[in-house]
Specification:
The chain is of the alpha/beta class and about 425 residues long. It contains twelve helices and 21 strands. Bound molecules: ligand LLP.
Length: about 425
Amino acid sequence: MDHFLYRDGELHAEDVVLRDIAAAVGTPFYCYSTATLTRHYQLFTDALSPLRHLVCFAVKANSNIAVLKHLGDLGAGMDVVSVGEYLRARAAGVPGERIVFSGVGKTREEMRIALEGGIRQFNVESEPELEALSEVAAGMGATAPIALRVNPDVDARTHEKIATGRKEDKFGVPIARASEIYARAAALPGLQVVGIDMHIGSQLTDLAPFEAAYTRMADLTRALRAEGHRIERLDLGGGLGIPYTRSNEAPPLPTDYGAMVKRVLGDLDCEVEIEPGRLIAGNAGVLVAQVIYRKEGEGRDFLILDAAMNDLIRPAMYGAHHDIVPLIEPEAGAPLAPVDIVGPVCETGDTFARQRPMPPLAAGDLVAFRSAGAYGAVMSSEYNSRPLIPEVLVCGDHFAVIRARPTFDEMLARDTFPAWM
Ligand code: LLP
């Protein structure tokens, strides 16, 4: 459930009319709902209770520091994959003890900054990384708490580009070698083993792959404990999917996920960490755009929007579906006609939807892309020299710009001429 609903014929974000935000900030823009973020965070923490747990929001899904601050203030931890994300979480007021550092390619510099600033745990993904972290931590006279990310060789049955738990994927250490690598970790200076980490993929719409992976994690916990390791925390990763269409999708809910986690891992007396991104932020955001032109093509019409693939790349990159709805509620029974919905960028990949049945829409009309709060703004670029678009946060009946649209001058000022010109 989200808080983007039609009321009195107008699409609202909570109690704010989206058209009013468009008038104030211009289009295109991202808009997030505080109440939806709260609700989704709360669903997870309720689902895992009474287990000791920490919900670490995957910052990669939405890294605006106002969004992070809201979640951090609710008690969320953060899962970061770069020092940039780490610094965002810290700037949002999240203490280091609530930040886990994931990612396959942490540099020594990133390790050093996180150790200096405070970190809950590093999720280590390879033996070379283990050696590097040991050197950095020991060199600083520090101890780095670690979990090894173990690749359970489970197919998450999701989009090819976002499945991460098969043995051919670049992530984690093979589960068959975990015992050997944990022994190595225990012998290295500057490291303290605290747990096990896994993340098998994103947008999973079935609990079975999670259950298969977590069952392997439970077995591994017992085996490692028998070998003398202290396994106190289990980081289960993120990945629970969301419905991208109103109609036919019904992925499992956090409650179902939580019940499964308790059943599979509940008797291990571990603190459970999860790293959801999409489920917390995805349906908490929309992208609002305006129709620039309606163009008649050969046998098809095009709606050309002022938003493009540089603003929301998911359709171009993954063939992802986003529902697109008018800000003015269509009349009941309004006729739907198929149309191609595209952006102004100069490549055919800049297509949001082909032959999408839509109510009548003309130049000047406003539309919202639903489910755009995760992997939307964070994946945007300035391709075609289109400045990054603003982000707006709504709370009840008020809203604020939480990232302003840069001016063209600001965009140009980042480039410089070399001295010889
Ligand atoms: N933890 C780790 C280590 C991850 O790599 C990810 C996502 C998450 C947690 C959060 O997963 P979530 O709960 O959001 O599914 N750009 C793609 C999604 C990439 C996901 C990458 N890793 C998309 O737009 O669908």
